[in-house]
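Summary of Year 1 activities. Much of the first year was spent building the evaluation harness for sequence design. The harness presents a backbone, in tokenized form, and records the residue chosen at every position. We chose the following record to illustrate the format because it has been used consistently in internal testing since the harness was completed.
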């Protein structure tokens, strides 16, 4: 009896070894066949702010604290002019903008309050009522939602990123994707194709 168990175990191990893939997918040192089409780099981990040109297209976004409404746009860079245009287009004149201390936000023509993450300041109580109203946590939560939406796609080409970001915006603003939303999306698609 013990011999039959050993044979079965040996047989299972032998099958597992046979099905194991032993080929390498790309040999080390082999040049890519087409130098004009380099292989895709995983995890573009360059430091600093991304730009469209360095394959890290930035997404500019605003979120209303009271309404919860989100506006997201893929842009080529996040310079002063781009941020000012976005903020002025999607916020009311009486809005208070809460940002970090990045220099491109300095010229926003709105009431503007900042937190300094470099000094480990995440929230501040300016008026002494015990509520820390100066923070960027609402926007950070929005970015977490956008990343979680994009994560299952395992990388989106920058040419198509704006479409995915638009869906993430609709999803956040609608709170759920309903049949009415899908019908409206199909109608819009027919108009633009």
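For this record, the design step produced the sequence shown next.
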């Amino acid at each position: 009896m013990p011999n039959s168990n050993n044979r079965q175990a040996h047989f299972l191990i032998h099958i597992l070894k046979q099905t194991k893939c032993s080929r390498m997918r790309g040999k080390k040192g082999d040049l890519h066949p087409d130098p004009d089409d380099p292989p895709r780099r995983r995890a573009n981990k360059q430091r600093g702010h991304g730009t469209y040109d360095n394959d890290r297209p930035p997404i500019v976004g605003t979120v209303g604290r009271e309404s919860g409404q989100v506006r997201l746009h893929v842009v080529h860079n996040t310079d002063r002019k781009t941020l000012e245009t976005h903020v002025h287009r999607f916020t009311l004149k009486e809005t208070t903008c809460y940002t970090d201390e990045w220099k491109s936000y300095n010229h926003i023509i709105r009431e503007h309050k900042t937190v300094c993450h470099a000094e480990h300041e995440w929230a501040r109580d300016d008026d002494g009522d015990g509520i820390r109203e100066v923070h960027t946590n609402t926007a950070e939560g929005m970015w977490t939602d956008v990343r979680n939406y994009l994560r299952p796609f395992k990388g989106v080409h920058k040419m198509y990123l704006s479409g995915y970001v638009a869906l993430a915006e609709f999803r956040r603003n609608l709170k759920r994707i309903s049949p009415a939303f899908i019908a409206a999306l199909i109608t819009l698609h027919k108009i633009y194709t």
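Residues 9-20 have pLDDT under 50 and may be disordered. Quantitative recovery figures across the full test set are reported in Table 2.
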